[in-house]
Write a structure and sequence with these properties.
Oligomer: heterodimer
Number of strands of chain A: 11
Largest interface: A-B, 32 and 26 residues
Shape of chain B: globular
Number of helices of chain B: 0
Largest sheet of chain A: 7 strands, mixed
Strand order of the largest sheet of chain B: 1-3-8-7-6
Radius of gyration of chain A: 13 Å
Number of helices of chain A: 0
Shape of chain A: globular
Helix content of chain A: under 10%
Strand content of chain B: over 45%
Structural class of chain A: mainly beta
Number of strands of chain B: 10
Radius of gyration of chain B: 13 Å
């Protein structure tokens, strides 16, 4: 597609359930970023992939969060045993460059609500 | 960690007014992004600049690397400019962007 696609657009889950969020980056983009945006706040960095390699996962808030990009294209962010504080918009961005000094293209995000 | 401050946090103006949003950061950078976020979450990249000034339509972005400060200007503002504007400095590495909290702009007709 022409842009970054995220699915689902909205996800409601009960506390304790596992969820998986998908990101389809722009074709050919090397870099892929995941961000978490709490209500009323700016996005916060979670993790970064360059092709299939996860080069930085320092922003993942706990070991319940796991991200993968096995073939260097589609990425999945998984959250295990969800908690209410996980409720946020999860944004994915891709870039043709290899650093953050390159334009990033954002998806519309997945709004996750944990009941 | 780069501390990013944006001002004002909220701004309401009348259609046609000249708008200025400011961004200051604490750590030297290689580039700074200005982003626009509409209700519903979609983020659009407006500018990425590392020096001087860039212009796109009614939008102008400036940066002073030495003073660690950037501004976003909107000329002849229009209600469709109503959105959250976020600045995000980049160290040029591969550790993700650091975002400001955003400026909530409302342009009234």
């Amino acid at each position: 597609g022409a842009g970054v696609s995220q699915s689902p657009r909205y996800k409601v889950a009960k506390r304790g359930q596992d969820v998986a969020l998908r990101c389809d980056p722009i074709s050919g983009h090397v870099s892929l970023f995941w961000y978490q945006q709490a209500l009323g706040q700016g996005p916060e960095f979670l993790t970064y992939f360059q092709n299939e390699a996860q080069l930085d996962k320092s922003g993942l808030p706990s070991d319940r969060f796991f991200a993968e990009r096995p073939e260097g294209s589609v990425s999945t962010l998984k959250i295990q045993r969800t908690q209410q504080e996980d409720s946020a918009v999860y944004l994915c961005a891709s870039s043709g460059g290899r650093t953050t000094a390159a334009a990033q293209h954002f998806g519309d995000g997945t709004r996750l609500s944990i009941l | 960690k780069n501390e990013v401050e944006q001002s004002p946090q909220n701004l309401t103006a009348q259609e046609g007014e000249f708008i200025t949003i400011n961004c200051s950061y604490s750590v030297g950078i290689s580039a700074l992004h200005w982003l626009q976020q509409h209700p519903g979450g979609g983020i659009v990249s407006l500018f990425m600049l590392s020096s001087g000034k860039k212009k796109h339509g009614r939008l102008i972005a400036t940066i002073n690397i030495q003073e660690k400060h950037s501004s976003l200007h909107i000329t002849a503002s229009h209600p469709r400019d109503s959105a959250v504007y976020i600045c995000a400095p980049s160290g040029g590495g591969a550790d993700g962007l650091t975002f400001g909290k955003g400026t909530h702009l409302i342009i009234q007709p």
